[in-house]
Amino acid sequence: MALNKEQMLDLYRQMRTIREFEETVANFFSQGQIPGFVHLYIGEEAVATGVCANLEKQDYIASTHRGHGHAIARGASVNKMMAEIFGKIDGFCKGKGGSMHIADIELGFLGANGIVGAGLPLATGAGFALKYMKKNGVAICFFGDAASNRGTFHESLNMASIQKLPVVFVNENNGYGISMSQARHQNIKDIADRASAYGMPGVVVDGNDVMAVYEAAEEAVKRARAGGGPILIECKTYRHHGHFEGDPTVYRTDEEVNAWKAKDPLPRFASRLQEMKMATEAEIKQIDLEVKKIIADAVEYAQKSPVPSQDELLTDVYCN
Amino acid sequence: MIAGIIANPASGKDIRRLVAHATVFDNLEKVNLIRRILLGLQAAGVQRVWVMPDYFNFYEQALDFFIGENQLTMETKLVPMKWNACQEDSQFAAAKMAELGVRCLITLGGDGTNRVVAKGAGDVPIMPVSTGTNNVFSVMLEGTLAGLAAGLVATGVVEREYSLLRTKKLIIHLNGKAVDIALIDAVVLEDQFIGSRAIWNMGKVRQIVATRGEPFHIGIAAIVGALHPIDMRAAEGINLIVAASGEQMLDQNQGSIIQVKAAVAPGLIRSIPVRSHELMSPGQKVTVRHRPCVIALDGEREIIVGPDDCCEIELAQTGPYVVDYKRTLKRAAEKGYFINR
């Protein structure tokens, strides 16, 4: 389906929101104002944005430790996200989970996840539930290149395939599992090749091109929703920052980083919008300014929110 | 006595595995294919083979496992170049191989891969082996035979007049400047983004310019083949104007639109409403009237044409030389090359 100008600008706005959110988190983390770990999505914005733009209310997504972008693309409140990352009571988990536990079941966002590859069986289960309950929904699972070496990947793809579940497995291949390059952790380069072993289509797309991701996800979601079974989409992308904030990234060269930064999905899409006369430079700048304000407000919201009291220490830990 | 191999590790993996029923061509199969090609080249007397480096590392993987009687004794080398996992790698490698004295280039990929190689290869002949999706230029061929045929060309055992064909090409002119080429077809799409590159939505096609097309082809060339077949030896090309969906009913009533049924992608057979078509003479240029648009070259969206741009497509007779593997092998047999008395 062709997107109109408004929808195109929405894609840009979404990517800009993720970028601004992440850069702000990086800034406050470096100042020591954010507890715990953060894994930033800077550079990978086109993947979450292009995929989630195809989803409907009844759909689910399962995320990763690098989950802020997925949550924002699914429509999670940036105020509550920022508060959670700051460890404040108004966060998604009352400030007790932090970056890697942001979840919003109302949005079908099954959560970020501190365990590599742990989202795969969650999404598969969600896909099973959607099919069993005839909800015409689709479950999306985001996961990294190294997660595709885990047993959960193979078990999940096998089960989703044999049960013909409406699951779209979205591999964000950023070339590294923590500090280990893909060349050192698997003897293939295209994770999409693994799809055929489970009897499902696997395709490779440019994960830094939001329109390429959008098109592939559109077709995959349509197919899964129509009962065509699971699909594996591999998005080739790159994280500009380290695995976690503070990672010295000694395992990669400046040359490599700069080559990928030249393919940054944001300026790439912005300039394409202008070339096609779908947006002016002024319109792009206006969006940037609006987003800056939204994220500044989220920081203010988080900073004003109190830290959880000691009474909260044991609440929300066990069911009932 | 030198040959070259350019294998595209990204071919056979695009969105057409999802929107159509295109073949999955994994890279390990390409490794096997390269091994068979190498053995064919060696049997034909080639002494040195240059291989393009790539992100999958076909070179080392292919050389990793030669056993028994199938040992590789000829020299193999990686082309000295930096690769960036983009299509320019293939163009650069082809140009470099031409400099290095390569006498025949074997490509593994689809028509898109060969388009890029042709931009760098100059007059070095190409033996195009299909591992892609749209395969009009490239041939579905057993690797051993591809290696043998390419080797017979590289070593000069079979004369060029028997073994080679000069193909046509399309030159894309944007605002008066030649910006790219296509070997088989240039398709004007009512689109604004390159996105996932492939073409599958025929509702977006507005114009087709092709060097050839036959009813047994797959892809856009199949439309040409169904309407007015043009083979690779013919000098002319063709320009088709496709009706937009809103126009169809109106003009069908007037009887001026032809519905052409064609296999536009693996597993996708569609009816295309063709408003008009005209043959093109060598050197003729046609204007792209639908703007803004995206132009797909040999099956892949490549060029964005803005609303104020001027774009023309020219038919030229100066496409790459390709190896006719059947004529090459037959000629070698006629010359007794395979007989040892």
What does this structure look like?
The complex is a heterodimer of chains A (320) and B (341). Chain A is of the alpha/beta class and 320 residues long. Chain A has a single domain (5-22, 39-303), classed as Thiamin diphosphate (ThDP)-binding fold, Pyr/PP domains (Rossmann fold, 3-Layer(aba) Sandwich), CATH 3.40.50.970. Chain A has helices at 5-30, 45-52, 68-73, 78-85, 119-132, 151-162, 182-185, 210-225, 254-261, 265-275, 281-304; strands at residues 60-62, 139-144, 167-173, 176-177, 180-181, 202-206, 231-236. In chain A, the strands form 2 sheets. Chain A has a 5-stranded parallel β-sheet, sandwiched between helices. A two-stranded antiparallel ribbon of chain A has the order 4-5. In chain A, α1 crosses α2 (45-52), α1 (5-30) runs antiparallel to α10 (265-275) and α2 (45-52) packs parallel to α8. The longest helix of chain A is centred in the first third of the chain and has 26 residues, at 5-30. Chain A starts with a helix and ends in a 16-residue tail after the last helix. The mean pLDDT of chain A is 96. Chain B has 341 residues and is α+β, with helices and mostly antiparallel strands. The model of chain B has no long low-confidence stretch (mean pLDDT 91). In chain B, the strands form 4 sheets. In chain B, strands 12-13-11-10-9-15-16 form a 7-stranded antiparallel β-sheet. Chain B is built from 10 helices and 18 strands. Chain B has helices at 16-19, 27-43, 58-63, 88-99, 111-121, 143-154, 160-163, 220-227, 245-254, 325-334, and strands spanning 2-7, 48-51, 75-78, 104-109, 126-130, 164-166, 169-174, 177-182, 185-189, 205-210, 237-242, 258-265, 268-280, 285-287, 293-297, 300-305, 311-316, 321-323. In chain B, β15 (293-297) and β16 form a beta hairpin. Chain B folds into 2 domains: 2-167 and 320-334, Rossmann fold, CATH 3.40.50; 169-316, Sandwich (Tumour Suppressor Smad4). The interface between A and B is medium-sized, with 31 and 26 residues. Chain A: Pfam families: E1_dh. Chain A: The pyruvate dehydrogenase complex catalyzes the overall conversion of pyruvate to acetyl-CoA and CO(2). Chain A: Residues 13-308 form the Dehydrogenase E1 component domain. Chain A: Keywords: Oxidoreductase, Pyruvate, Thiamine pyrophosphate. Chain A: Its cofactor is thiamine diphosphate.
